[in-house]
Specification:
The protein has 9 helices and 12 strands. With 314 residues, it is of the alpha/beta class. It has a 12-stranded mixed beta sheet, covered by helices on one side.
């Protein structure tokens, strides 16, 4: 299905929980956020039903997000249900990998095709300071478990933050030399706790190219501009929602853990899906696609959404 601006919408990001085992500084306050009761969150069956209805509307790729999806009870069951939908060609999951040691094999067996690992620093002290909960060793152990389970082409997502990890760009690039991974640098977006941070912390992804001119352009993947170091097995992706917004190429819709459809991460508009079934549910999803906004307005200031990222799904 296409939206009013001619974009083919074939990608659903489905949040299965708003809870997280970390408290990353740019995402959540240290004390955490208001926790919705379990009765307010989509059930396993509802998650699968939403994915099935989205597939009937043309969605071919589903990504499970959170919060941290692995804290959600029954996530392998959700994966099994969605991977069994004939129209779904790819099922992915984004995780901080802190719990992945126990879940990597079950996720693979449940039909997950690919994992994205959120990892903003390769230094243990910085990792502890940023996440306020986790350890780098836990994440690295989770990555190793993912490889053993057969997830070879991992994507490592690093949010670029001035004064925090911009001196580690070279260390991240080195990960691509001997591994078929894609390290992706994502521009920090002014939403949630970081909306009021000083401007120097918001870096353009261009800094990666400026500092490492040896990077060679290769074929793009979705909204990521992709590059490769000479001789590297893996690639480097730049995701630039602010400096080079990709709204014209956006192919996604989002459903929050409490069952609201959002046409854009940064918009206020939401369409409730809970309680809808069959043709009614499909009609609501089609309405959401038809109302998808043309673009966000981050260049003019902070995100318009009243929700934090963990409440929407990263």
């Amino acid at each position: 299905m296409t939206d009013p601006f001619g974009r083919t919408i074939d990608y659903l990001r489905l949040s299965v929980t708003d809870r997280c085992n970390y408290r990353c500084q740019y995402c959540m306050p240290e004390e955490g956020v208001f926790k919705r009761s379990h009765s307010e969150i989509l059930t396993v069956e509802e998650c699968v039903e939403v994915a099935r209805a989205a597939a009937a509307c043309g969605v071919r790729k589903v990504r499970l997000t959170g919060g941290e999806p692995l804290v959600r009870r029954g996530v392998p069951d959700i994966c099994r249900g969605i991977s069994a939908i004939p129209e779904i060609e790819e099922l992915c999951l984004t995780t901080n990998a802190g719990l992945l040691s126990d879940f990597a094999a079950p996720l693979r067996q449940a039909g997950v095709d690919r994992l994205n690992i959120s990892l903003d620093t390769l230094r243990p002290d910085r990792f502890a300071a940023m996440t306020r909960r986790g350890t780098l060793d836990q994440t690295l152990a989770g990555i190793e478990a993912a490889q053993r389970a057969g997830f070879e082409h991992l994507k490592i997502n690093a949010v670029l933050i001035g004064g925090f990890n911009d001196d580690e760009i070279g260390d991240f690039l080195a990960l691509t030399m001997d591994r078929p991974w894609e390290v992706r640098f994502i521009e920090l977006m002014p939403m949630g706790p970081c909306a009021g941070w000083e401007k120097g912390r918001f870096l353009s992804s261009q800094v990666v190219l400026d500092r490492y001119p040896a990077l060679e352009r290769v074929e793009d993947s979705g909204v990521a501009r992709r590059y490769r170091l000479p001789g590297a097995k893996g690639t480097v992706g730049l995701i630039s929602p602010i400096s080079c917004d990709f709204c014209a190429q956006c192919s996604r819709i989002r459903v929050t853990a409490d069952g609201k459809l959002k046409g854009c991460l940064h918009s206020r508009e939401e369409i409730p899906l809970r309680g809808l079934h069959g043709a009614e549910l499909e009609a609501a999803i089609r309405r959401g696609i038809a109302q998808k906004p043309e673009r966000h307005h981050l260049s003019q200031g902070a995100s318009a959404t009243p929700r934090s990222m963990n409440q929407i799904g990263g």
